[in-house]
Amino acid sequence: MKWKTDDGGWSPYLAGALAGLLAIASAWATTAVLGKTSYLGTSTTFVRAAGFVEKQVAPEHAAANAYFTKEKIKVDWQFMVVLGILLGAAVSAFTGKSFKAEGVPPLWAQRFGPSVAKRAVWAFAGGAVAMFGARLADGCPSGHGLSGLMQLSVSGFVALAMFFGAGVLCAHFIYRGGRHE
Amino acid sequence: MNELLLGLATGFVFGFLLQKGRVLRFEKQVGAMLLRDMTILKFMLSAIIVGMVGIYLLRDLGVIALSHKSMNLGAVVVGGLLFGAGWSVMGYCPGTAVGALGEGRWHALFVIAGMLAGAALYAEFYPQLSATVLQWKEFGKLGLPEALGVSPWLVIAIFIPVVLALFAWFEKMKL
To answer: What number is the ipTM of this complex?
Structure first.
């Protein structure tokens, strides 16, 4: 098995196994520092970030919202994890010389053309639907998928099956006829 | 303050590994859904089989506690399906969209903006959803070993070989 991929990345098995070690270390470290075991996740942070924006635009409306009250609009451990992902990815991309400014994903361009505006509209709509779903399900592939399966949570298994089931079905529909191989 | 620094450091390493594993690419995410390129599943499942051993070991030693998410039928099934549908269009999950921005793929900004809108929309409809979908059936914070009435180590002992066999198949099929 190769430890490096052709484009200079690491084998996903190696990078994934290291992420598994990180998850273990993180469970231990959060227990020690926060006094409560926290597992890796990201989607609650989007609620909090949306709450911050709403607080600026419509403070009374945001204050009256039951969901923001439940999840609390604040910068917490997970919020910083999400910022850390941005930084870690940037440092890895720069040092590994794989940083690339890209306005439309190549696979999307191949199927739907190079228009940034068209991609922007669909990306926004897809993001909105997905996050609505992630909040309803109370987690995304990191919270339900990684952290849920590591803990053998029933909800993690069911959520991951739903994510992939719907994803596979929709992706085949979207990219039908777009295969150029 | 320690809480925030710990979060930043944890996220930094996670983002670094996601980028090195090439999990942050739109092509890898959609490639998995098109069943052509299993990079993200290799990454996820490797993390899961390593993680579950350590997590349950630390749990058994009394060092950490498990924190299952609730198995609410309507929430997980409807929410999961909505997520999957949106995922296939946006080509990222929440964490990887942020990471993709870090490696220069600025089209991820549209995805991030959409996700913020989706989160705000969910917050708006939360009262209605609490009274409907979230009321369907609540199984609680349930672990698979408890649901099956067996030791977690038995589940792990079965889960790991199954994943390894899947990996062997991915390699054989060059996925």
So the answer is: 0.95
